[in-house]
Amino acid sequence: MWTNSNFQLFSSSNDDKPSLGLGFLDSSEPPLPPPPPPIEVLSSEVSSSVKCTVEPVNLDGLTLLKGRVSTKDVLGLPNSDLVPGVYEGGLKLWEGSLDLVKALRSEIQNGHLSIEGKRVLELGCGHGLPGIFACLEGASVAHFQDFNAEVLRCLTIPNVNVNLSEKSLPDPAAEVRFFAGDWGELHQLLPHARKSEMNPTSCSEHDQATGYDVILMAETIYSISAQRNLYGLIKKCLSHPHGVVYMAGKKHYFGVGGGTRQFLSMLEKDGVLASSLVTEVADGSSNVREVPVLDYVVMILCMLSKLVWRVGRNQLHG
Fold first, then answer.
1. pLDDT tens-digit profile of 197-215?
2. What number is the average pLDDT over the span 240-262?
3. Which top EC class is named for this enzyme in its record (predicted)?
4. Sheet holding 2-4, edge to edge
């Protein structure tokens, strides 16, 4: 059941303090329990037993709606931002998701990005605001993933429904689906993911026809132990060679060593994806936040190799 309540930009589980993204970063990460198996959560499985309120979020003139539910009501857990391997913070509205929507909007307005007709995947979605924005921009496919199925049933699906029902969609037939599970196994379930990582030097037409055109993620790189699974999933999901990843997060998550700097350093060493900074946010509400965009290092090489092949073929048959 959705009811109106007063506007609050950053929500917490069942208190009124802003979510600054630092409270769970005071100690090293303990060993994690086995992850739940990946499953698809149908939109018809929305919870009817958990009370959820809805509030407007104004993003520089764009108004989206966000829900608030109690961690205790949804998962039976005490008021907490994170229980590693059990609950990964999906019920809170993190600053990075707002940064990401603003950055996407700016990229589209500047002509650097088009989402219309694209396949979009939001990882670690929570409220799903970036994925909702992609739907409003005409995505043909919008898939939402969160670690917890109950987050999807009690928050994401209702939040997607209430936002999309308020707007006139460019593509009313867009495919919207929801998936829960750990990043290490999720590729087995996602419709547009490959079963293994793609050869980064491949330029085949088949590779271009598979994968997601745009991957979105906010506040997903705080845990070093989960970063390799996240990166592996990206390489199995991202369309080649023109797919892009927009990510939002803090430069450093003190206490666990994660952050955008550490994650991008891992990518640089791997050499498959390159990054460029879209925006940096230093508003004093938390440590410095960033929104980088990732794309394939070999995209230009693929284009050149195709050009050389075509020139050679023309000369051969000339």
1. 766 555 555 555 689 999 9
2. 90
3. transferase
4. 2-4, 52-59, 62-68
